[in-house]
Write a structure and sequence with these properties.
Aspartate Aminotransferase, domain 2, 7-stranded mixed β-sheet, 2 domains, globular, about 375 residues, 3-stranded antiparallel β-sheet, 12 strands, 14 helices, Aspartate Aminotransferase, domain 1
Length: about 375
């Protein structure tokens, strides 16, 4: 049976060149980078090299890159650290209803701790305007948090506009860039954000490694205490091999030509909309990450469709992998205006550079038949 992986927004296959780059840090320079002996110093040098490479690729300074255990930690640190680090000014935080659960749940916790969290509405594409952000800002606003690319529907927000507003108003701006980093060139210094989160396993790097960019001069409290690592801002022995893998994965991702991936994504979207009646693309068609295609199909359950696709060798998702085991409808789809019954019929197909035209053709052969099979069993179909 044919095997097609179309769930790259959840995680990606480790690139062979990334594994090759990591092996020396696992088998040769495996010392603790905090140790003073030669083995430890060799590991420290390897870590510094990885940090410098990531900083160069993102257009910032090495001392502004801090390694974490992944995107979730980076998001938690960015939000909690900036909220408390700037709480002397005020406790008003602005974000959006479509943020990743790692952000929304952290913001919920901050709300219980005395902060006032305002979640902005989005339009039917999941977009937010600079005018909305400007209107929400107050004298006591201390933090703006908006994701660059949505993990469920793929919509890309105009982050540079938001960053300019935040800078003008003296508001710290945190950006969840987990689904954006490596998808296109991003110069963080030019972008103007104060904090930016990224994760290795979204770009064919290893799991368990991420990074948080903290612009020099930004007030951010520590999240994890217990050691002098990461310039005394994040305790814990560093994952040297993971850092090397993240640096190599980011380098490869940025060097990759996205033209073919964009073409295959368009082929998939056009094919699904043409062959499956009562289907809808979710998220912006124009402002969307390459490789990302998400749909809702009326009169079916997305979970049932997922199982049929899996049985045919196609790995997909019903939305965010972080909440895919929940029976609740996607908060993102509800936020863009879909009624609950339609939101249950969602599916996300996310491609990569490994995806071929034959793979897309196979999906377009299997998917319409699977949808129709489920509709034929639905008492609502045909009424």
């Amino acid at each position: 049976m044919k095997k097609i992986y179309a769930d790259n927004a959840a995680t990606t296959k480790l690139h062979s060149a990334v594994l090759d780059a990591m092996l020396p840090a696992l088998t040769e320079d495996w010392g603790n980078p905090s140790s003073l002996h030669s083995g430890g110093q060799a590991a420290a040098a390897t870590l510094a090299e990885a940090r410098a490479k990531i900083a160069s690729l993102l257009g910032v300074q090495s001392r502004e890159i801090f390694f974490t255990s992944g995107g979730t930690e980076s998001i938690n640190w960015g939000l909690r650290g900036a909220a408390y680090g700037n709480s002397a000014k005020g406790k008003h935080i602005i974000s959006a209803k479509t943020e990743h659960p790692a952000a929304l749940e952290t913001l919920t916790a901050l709300g219980k701790e005395g902060f006032e969290v305002q979640l902005l509405d989005v339009d039917s594409d999941g977009m937010i305007t600079a005018e909305q952000v400007a209107a929400a800002m107050r004298e006591d606003t201390v933090l703006l948090s908006l994701m660059y690319a949505n993990n469920e529907v793929g919509t890309i927000l105009p982050i540079a506009q938001f960053a300019q507003l935040a800078r003008e108003r003296g508001v710290t701006f945190f950006c969840d860039g987990v689904q954006a980093a490596g998808k296109w060139e991003i110069n963080l210094a030019n972008l103007g954000v104060d904090l930016f989160a990224l994760s290795g396993h979204k770009i064919h790097g290893p799991k368990g490694i991420g990074a948080l960019y903290i612009r020099r001069g930004t007030r951010v409290d520590s999240l994890i205490h217990g050691g002098g690592q990461e310039s005394s801002r994040r305790g814990g022995t560093e994952n040297v091999a993971g850092a090397v893998g993240l640096a190599k994965a980011l380098e490869l991702a940025l060097a990759e030509d996205k033209t073919e991936l964009t073409r295959l994504t368009d082929m998939l979207i056009d094919g699904v909309l043409a062959t499956v009646p009562h289907s809808q693309l979710t998220g912006s068609r124009r402002h969307r990450t390459a490789g990302h295609a998400s749909f809702v199909f009326d009169f079916i359950e997305g979970e049932s469709l997922l199982y049929l696709l899996d049985a045919a060798g196609i790995a997909a998702s019903t939305g965010s992998a972080c909440s895919s085991k929940s029976l609740e409808p996607s908060h993102v789809l509800l936020a863009i205006g879909l009624p609950e019954e339609r939101a249950h019929g969602s599916i996300r197909l996310s491609l990569s550079a490994d995806t071929t035209e034959e793979d897309v053709a196979y999906i377009l052969d299997v998917l319409p038949k699977a949808v129709q099979k489920l509709r034929d069993m639905s008492p609502l179909w045909g009424k």
